[in-house]
Design goal:
single chain; alpha+beta; Pnp Oxidase, Chain A; 2 domains; 7-stranded antiparallel sheet; 5 helices; 36% helix
Length: 138
């Protein structure tokens, strides 16, 4: 019995070490959406040196307000938007300037409740806690 438990555990640990050594934190983080046939936007954030970085994300239409969620790793784009909230969004071939504003805790809870994804499932799937940014046109 002891061997049946330790063998899968050892294999799991080896897999985690291999993933960590290659820089891959989760399988989800290894593949970012391109044009997957659904509605996506490209958000461009700036780092400390002013260099642009693009990330494909799925927009949330919150009663006419554009919202984006930092769902999983990597989340560098989210940290850059917090540090420098002036972002651009390409949507449907058109690029516009926005200010990224963190939502209030009340808004966050409402958005989570409306997502339909059970909160406990985030822990089971390895997703980081969802954070949201409201994109206000400039």
């Amino acid at each position: 019995m002891h061997r049946r438990i330790t063998t899968p555990l050892a294999l799991c640990l080896l897999g985690m070490l291999a993933a960590a050594s290659t820089g891959c934190m989760t399988a989800v983080a290894a593949f970012q959406p391109e044009d997957i046939g659904g509605q996506t936007i490209v958000i461009t954030t700036l780092d400390e040196e002013g260099q642009p970085h693009e990330r494909v994300v799925t927009p949330i239409d919150d009663d006419g307000t554009l919202v984006v969620a930092a769902n999983h790793w990597p989340r560098a784009w989210y940290r850059r938007a917090l540090a420098n909230p002036e972002v651009t969004v390409e949507r449907g071939g058109e690029t516009k300037a926005y200010r990224a504003v963190p939502v209030s805790e009340e808004e966050r809870e409402r958005l989570l409740d409306n997502s339909g994804f059970p909160k406990f499932a985030y822990l089971l799937t390895g997703f980081a806690p969802r954070q949201f940014l409201r994109l206000e046109p400039i």
